[in-house]
Structure formats: C-alpha cells, structure tokens
Amino acid sequence: MQDLTEIKQFLGSETPDAWVANALEHQAELLIDHAHCEKKAATTALNLINRYPHDDDLLNKMSRLAREELRHFEQVLKFIKKRKLRFTNLTASRYAAKLREHVRTHEPSKLADILIIGAFIEARSCERFAKIAPLLEQDLCEFYLSLLKSESRHYQDYLGLAAKYETRDLEGRVAYFRSIENDLIAQPDTQFRFHSGPISA
Asked: Residues 195, 121: contact at Cβ < 8 Å?
C-alpha cells in the first residue's frame, strides 16, 4: 500500500472508526456516492479550466485530473452494475458545500482557497480509500487501493497550484481549512455519504 504519511499529516486527523462501520453497513450508498464524487471532481476540474484559462500549469493538471476522474467514474459504474445496483441521484453531503462557504471572494485569494479545498477533498478521499479497502470484497479492495496513487497526486497538484496564488500565508490558510474539515468529518450526520461524518443514532 502507498505510504500515506504526508497525506495524514496534511489532514491532521483520521476518519472516525464509526464512519468505517457506517460504510460497511451502507455499501450500496458508498459505491453510488463514490461515483457521484468522481463525476463532481471532473466537473470541478473543468470549471477551473473554464474560469482560469491564463495558467498553463493549471490547465494541464486539471485536464489530466478531469480525464482520470471520468475514467474512475466509469470504473465505479461497472462495480455498481456488477452488484446489480442502480446509479441514481443522491442528496449531496454537507462536506464540500460547508468548506466552500469559507472561500474568500476576491482574486487570487478565491482561487487559492478553491485549490486548498480541492487538496483536502482529494487527501481525505485517499485516506478513506486506504482505511476502508481492506474490509471490502477483494475486487473492490484492489480497486480502491489502485486509486491511492492518483488521489495522492491530485492532492499534490491542488496544493502546488494553491501555493502559486497564496504567496503570503499558505500554511495559515491550510490550517484554517484543516480545522473546518476536521470538524466536518467528526460531527454526526443524518445520512451516510463518502465524505460524511459518522451517522447519528
């Protein structure tokens, strides 16, 4: 398994064991929401390409990321079909929306915050794939472990791009969003999602 030491240090907290237990109890929702997450990740990358066409580094990294996320989306759809499930709409978790509530409104600070949030989403996804994979059926376990390399690179790409636009206090902004992110994954949620907190009783 890929070494996740850097990602765990960046995140600052581990996924609660209660969420892992919830995931095992809600494997259909886990797969379906995972597919939605891959689709949304591709959409986010394409939106950044459309909104910020002046940065060649951003264009190249987000183009590659969008292609990879769509390929992952297609792969998850195959697992959904294999398990005779149906890909349907799900209400989104509060995770990403709550993080984005704290994005600054002026540029380039706005872009820096969006990229930092992207880094947290990718890093948390990577950490959760690694945590849940050994507990799943072999085919899904192998698939989730295969995603660690790309998710880790996506986290690095987002964070590297953020450093270009937050030149004054990158660590301060990362720490700010880390506190918010850690609270979101620890607080109880009413429904299970890939980025939810533990389900409240």
From this structure: yes
